[in-house]
C-alpha cells in the first residue's frame, strides 16, 4: 500500500518554476527522506501534499485517496504553528483535547525522550529554536498517527537526543516522510532517499547504500580546481563544487600519482550522499 503517491506535480509562483513534473511514492512502513538544499522546493512540496497549496497540475494521494482527513497524519511544518503566549503544558493540553488524549499519558510516554519536563512551565516565546522544535515534533506524534510528514524535523535540535526521538517516531513501523538537508541524518535514518534540485527529482529514489554504490567509484579525490589539472581528467568522472574538483577514483588507480605531480594539496575520502546529490545536480559534472 502507498501511504503517499505524488504524480506529475508542477508548481510555479509568479512565473518561476518551483516544482516540475515530480512523481514518487512512499510505501507503508517506509522512512523516506527528500534531500535538497534550502530553497530547492521541499517545503512547497509538503504544502502541496497536505493540500495547503494547489499545484499547477498533477495529483497527490494519501492512503490511496485524493480526498482524505488528517486523523492518521502527524504534521511538522517548517514554520512552527506554536502560540507564543501559551506555556508548553498549555499547548500540549490543547492538543490532548483535540485528540481526546489524557495529559498524564502524554507525560508518561513522551516527556522523558523529548526532555519536556524542564520546559513544561515555560512560555513558548522563551524557548530556543531547538526546544520549540522538540515540542512541535511531540505535537505531531502524540496521537500515534500512521503517517508522519515532517519538514526539517531536526534542524536546531540538540543531536544528543535525536536518537531517542527517532526511536519514538519509528515505533510500530510508522511511515515517515521527511525533508532534510542533513545528508548524514538521511543516510542513517532513511530506508529510501530522493534528491530534489532545481524543482526536479535528480535521481531515482533508492536506498542510501544503493544510491552511493551507483556512483562511478567508492572513493573520491578532492583538490583545487585548475584548468591544467582538469585537462588531465579525460576519462575520469568528476564534478566541480566550491572551487574544488571532486573526482571519483577506483582502488589502485594511477590518478593519484598523476594528481600528486601537480599538487600536494589533495585528500582521499569515501563517497557519501552529498556526492550522489552534487554529481547528479551539477551542470559541471563530467562522465
UniProtKB/TrEMBL annotation:
Going by the UniProt record, its keywords in alphabetical order are: ATP-binding, Nodulation, Nucleotide-binding, Transport
Domain ABC transporter stretches: 4-224
SUPFAM superfamilies in the record: P-loop containing nucleoside triphosphate hydrolases
Could you tell me which InterPro entries the record lists for this protein?
AAA+_ATPase (IPR003593), ABC_transporter-like_ATP-bd (IPR003439), ABC_transporter-like_CS (IPR017871), ABC_transporter_ATP-binding (IPR050763), P-loop_NTPase (IPR027417)
SMART domains, A to Z: AAA (SM00382)
MF GO annotations: ATP binding; ATP hydrolysis activity
Describe the family membership recorded for this protein in Swiss-Prot or TrEMBL: Belongs to the ABC transporter superfamily.
Protein name per Swiss-Prot or TrEMBL: ABC transporter ATP-binding protein
Please name the taxonomic classification of the source: Bacteria, Pseudomonadati, Bacteroidota, Bacteroidia, Marinilabiliales
Amino acid at each position: 500500500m502507498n501511504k503517499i503517491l505524488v504524480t506529475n506535480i508542477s508548481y510555479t509562483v509568479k512565473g518561476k518554476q518551483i516544482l516540475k513534473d515530480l512523481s514518487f511514492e512512499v510505501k507503508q512502513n517506509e522512512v523516506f527522506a527528500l534531500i535538497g538544499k534550502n530553497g530547492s522546493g521541499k517545503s512547497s512540496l509538503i504544502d502541496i501534499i497536505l493540500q495547503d497549496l494547489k499545484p499547477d497540475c498533477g495529483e497527490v494521494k494519501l492512503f490511496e485517496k485524493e480526498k482524505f482527513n488528517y486523523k492518521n497524519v502527524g504534521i511538522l511544518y517548517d514554520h512552527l504553528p506554536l502560540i507564543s503566549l501559551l506555556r508548553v503544558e498549555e499547548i500540549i493540553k490543547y492538543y490532548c483535547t483535540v485528540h481526546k488524549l489524557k495529559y498524564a499519558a502524554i507525560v508518561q510516554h513522551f516527556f522523558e525522550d523529548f526532555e519536556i519536563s524542564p520546559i513544561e512551565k515555560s512560555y513558548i516565546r522563551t524557548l530556543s529554536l531547538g526546544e520549540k522544535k522538540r515540542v512541535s515534533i511531540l505535537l505531531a506524534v502524540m496521537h500515534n498517527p500512521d503517517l508522519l510528514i515532517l519538514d526539517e524535523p531536526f534542524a536546531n535540535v540538540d543531536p544528543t537526543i535525536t536518537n531517542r526521538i527517532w526511536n519514538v517516531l519509528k515505533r510500530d513501523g510508522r511511515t515517515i516522510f521527511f525533508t532534510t538537508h542533513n545528508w548524514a541524518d538521511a543516510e542513517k535514518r532513511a530506508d529510501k532517499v530522493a534528491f530534489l534540485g532545481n524543482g526536479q527529482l535528480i535521481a531515482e529514489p533508492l536506498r542510501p547504500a544503493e544510491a552511493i554504490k551507483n556512483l562511478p567509484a567508492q572513493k573520491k579525490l578532492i583538490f583545487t580546481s585548475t584548468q591544467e589539472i582538469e585537462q588531465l581528467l579525460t576519462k575520469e568522472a568528476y564534478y566541480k563544487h566550491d572551487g574544488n574538483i571532486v573526482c571519483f577514483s577506483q582502488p589502485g588507480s594511477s590518478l593519484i600519482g598523476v594528481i600528486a605531480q601537480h599538487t600536494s594539496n589533495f585528500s582521499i575520502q569515501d563517497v557519501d550522499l552529498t556526492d550522489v546529490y552534487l554529481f547528479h545536480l551539477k551542470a559541471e559534472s563530467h562522465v
